[in-house]
């Protein structure tokens, strides 16, 4: 191609990751991490499903299964620049908590979030300090749903189907 200071998109796909002794997340997109396309994985445990901070941007997590994570997203610094937002869509997220996490909720550089299936112990979830239906009424996280956590056999079945797609 053409020489550029912008790296090619790197892809992480069809993996089974277990975050064990010090669970924060399975893929850590921070410290300037950019241009990652993370899809069709089964991630087990961790404080966050997708994590991105300290200058990370243009990271896309889609079509993944996150099993028994604390929250879906952990972003902990300033919002991304318009046109360089992260994307989180078409994921199945089994959470041990009921808070979606910490995406950019207002202003520019909002994380693009949609069409996810969330599962919590209560079948309810808050996102940007609002319950999911209220947040969606404002035009956010469209197409996403929240339900109670299914049994482990069901979740393992999803993972087998996902990883057999290779």
Instruction: Please give the count of helices.
Output: 2
Residue windows where pLDDT falls under 50 for at least 5 positions: none
Percent strand equals: 35-45%
Q: How far apart lie the N and C ends?
A: 28 Å
Radius of gyration: 15 Å
- Biggest sheet: strands side by side, in what order? 2-5-8-11-13-16
Structural class by sheet pairing and helices: mainly beta
Series of secondary-structure elements, N-terminal to C-terminal? EEEEEEEEEEEEEEEHEH
Instruction: Report the mean per-residue pLDDT as an integer.
Output: 91
The number of distinct β-strands equals 16
Please bin the fraction of helical residues. 10-25%
Coarse morphology:
globular
Main sheet record: 6 strands, parallel
């Amino acid at each position: 191609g053409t020489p550029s200071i912008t790296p090619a998109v790197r892809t992480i796909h069809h993996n089974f990751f277990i975050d064990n002794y010090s669970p924060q997340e399975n893929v850590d997109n921070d410290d300037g991490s950019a241009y990652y396309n993370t899809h069709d994985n089964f991630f087990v445990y961790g404080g966050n499903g997708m994590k991105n901070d300290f200058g990370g941007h243009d990271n896309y997590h889609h079509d993944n299964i996150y099993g028994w994570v604390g929250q879906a997203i952990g972003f902990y610094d300033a919002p991304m620049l318009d046109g360089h937002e992260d994307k989180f869509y078409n994921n199945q997220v089994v959470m041990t908590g009921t808070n979606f996490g910490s995406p950019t909720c207002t202003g520019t550089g909002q994380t693009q979030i949609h069409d996810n299936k969330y599962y919590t112990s209560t079948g309810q979830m808050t996102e940007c300090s609002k319950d999911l239906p209220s947040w969606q009424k404002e035009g956010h996280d469209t197409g996403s749903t929240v339900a109670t956590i299914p049994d482990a056999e069901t979740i393992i079945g999803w993972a087998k189907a996902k990883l057999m797609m290779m």
